[in-house]
Design brief:
Keywords: Signal. The chain is 13% helix and 44% strand. By secondary structure, the protein is mainly beta.
Length: 178
Amino acid sequence: MRNKIIFGIAFLGLIVLQSLQAQQSCRKVHNFCKEMIPPEEQSKDWDLDNQSKSATVEKGKVYEMSFIAYHDYIYRISNCTDVEDGEKINFEIFHMELVRRPDKNGNPRIFKEKVSIYNNKTDDMSAFYKFRVEKSEKLYVQVNVPASGKSEAKQFKDSDFVCVGVLLEHKKAGKLGF
């Protein structure tokens, strides 16, 4: 009986360890996104934002993350994946906006909805985007993961999963105007 309990605990521990290792294999992938930024855009002025994220994701799916962009800062967002020789990642940035439109009864109403402020499809599939916000606000990043290509991670070589990173960097904006 005692051997069965020890075996059960060891087996459960092994499963938990493998699960944690699979999740952590994509940790800090966002740090490699800096390589996607052209040399003329790289400088030491940018600080890593703690809201950057990396994750294991399924190929061909759309994933969303959110972050807070603060007033008086310039942000640079870049994304990357560990897919070898695959398609570029499509990403889009949204913010919430009040929109006036009729409800189902035809009465004019004000709704809050996500409105796109950038899509890299219109920017030659650029892997990064720089922007400044007028006021502090919550922004959303949608990442469309390519459906093809093989992951560089050993455990994802022949699977439907890849590592994706979204790197956020910021720097203090200079004073504009008077």
